[in-house]
Design the sequence.
């Protein structure tokens, strides 16, 4: 529940300032003072919260300082703010950055047909361009470059068939044709994927190869991004399921650079991720989320209040259509009024008003802390 109508606060300020003529504290002055008073109260929440943690708590939620502060801060919390390279411009305190559950899916694909090459793999069964292509999102060093691409497993024999150029981080599996069985070849392919691909894991059941994608992506329901040659290697989509929500950890710039330069620490799958701030609202994320939805939870900075008005007969009359309300908990109405009056005493050169208000506020705080 928020502070009452801004016009109520304005009229109360005028009345307590003991001014019968509306406008002695002009609307422009009131709006400036109201904005500062609101920000002062809002900023104190975080200091008060820190100090409350140092004091003994209270079992009653209505009497516990921390619970009361949480209640006041809750109305400023935004859940699921969109992050598209920049944090929301009204973010005051960032709480977490995470991947949307809606786009957070993984998949399992089963490759069959390898057993058709025979109990013992014949030399002519493996052409110079035999491969299984797995989709991935990675920083490649080959022709694929940086971005959404593929991770290929090239299968060759020991007779010297050419390996395609520019395969970058991809895998080459050498098969001893004429000696190894299809089951042994598939087991070797699974081991190569597990040893070398940071984006997939694999198991084999005889000559059938099952690949689990570690990356959480917005996958197509079809196999349009799974290719294989020859076509006798069939790809069957086993499942595409929702994964767990991924939360990104914030690091500073020095650690960001260090992590990127360290192969063991550099995140390549979405089971863990990092981010760091760039300027006031910019944000960089690893691994690169591509087109997937990244969200954040944060504490919103309250908008500056505005007592809207129209001038009729040289008098300012309240206009609700041009008004921006206070964004404070209803319990702050008394404190808000006192702070505006305290500031108004300076503006209208009436120090006695400020002194009275300061005494009233001191008494109020003393009563609350009993």
Sequence:
């Amino acid at each position: 529940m928020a502070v009452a109508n801004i016009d109520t606060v304005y009229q109360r300020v005028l009345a307590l300032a003991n001014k019968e003529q509306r406008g002695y504290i002009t609307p422009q002055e009131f709006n400036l003072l109201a904005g500062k008073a609101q920000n002062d109260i809002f900023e104190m929440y975080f200091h008060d919260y820190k100090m409350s943690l140092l004091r003994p708590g209270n079992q009653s939620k209505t009497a516990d300082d921390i619970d009361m502060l949480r209640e006041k801060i809750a109305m400023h919390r935004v859940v699921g703010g969109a992050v598209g390279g920049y944090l929301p411009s009204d973010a005051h305190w960032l709480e977490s950055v995470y991947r949307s559950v809606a786009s957070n899916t993984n998949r399992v694909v089963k490759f069959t047909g390898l057993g058709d090459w025979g109990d013992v793999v014949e030399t002519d069964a493996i052409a110079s361009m035999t491969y299984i292509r797995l989709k991935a999102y990675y920083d490649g060093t080959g022709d694929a470059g940086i971005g959404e691409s593929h991770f290929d497993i090239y299968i060759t024999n020991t007779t010297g068939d050419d390996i395609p150029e520019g395969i970058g981080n991809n895998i080459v599996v050498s098969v001893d044709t004429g000696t190894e069985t299809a089951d042994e070849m598939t087991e070797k392919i699974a081991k190569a994927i597990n040893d070398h691909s940071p984006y997939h894991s694999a198991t084999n059941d005889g000559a059938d190869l099952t690949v689990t994608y570690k990356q959480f992506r917005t996958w197509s329901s079809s196999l349009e991004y799974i290719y294989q040659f020859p076509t006798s290697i069939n790809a069957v989509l086993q499942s595409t399921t929702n994964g767990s929500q991924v939360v990104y950890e914030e690091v500073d710039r020095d650690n960001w650079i260090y992590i990127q330069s360290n192969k063991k620490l550099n995140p390549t799958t979405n089971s863990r991720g990092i981010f760091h701030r760039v300027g006031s609202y910019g944000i960089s994320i690893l691994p690169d989320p591509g087109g997937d939805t990244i969200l954040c939870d944060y504490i919103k900075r309250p908008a500056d209040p505005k007592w809207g008005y129209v001038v009729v007969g040289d008098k300012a009359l309240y206009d609700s259509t041009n008004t921006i309300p206070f964004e404070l908990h209803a319990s702050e109405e008394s404190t808000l009024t006192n702070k505006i009056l305290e500031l108004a005493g300076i503006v209208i050169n009436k120090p006695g008003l400020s002194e009275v208000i300061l005494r009233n506020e001191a008494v109020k705080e003393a009563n609350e802390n009993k």
In short: The chain has three domains: 6-76+303-368, 96-102+245-300, 105-242.
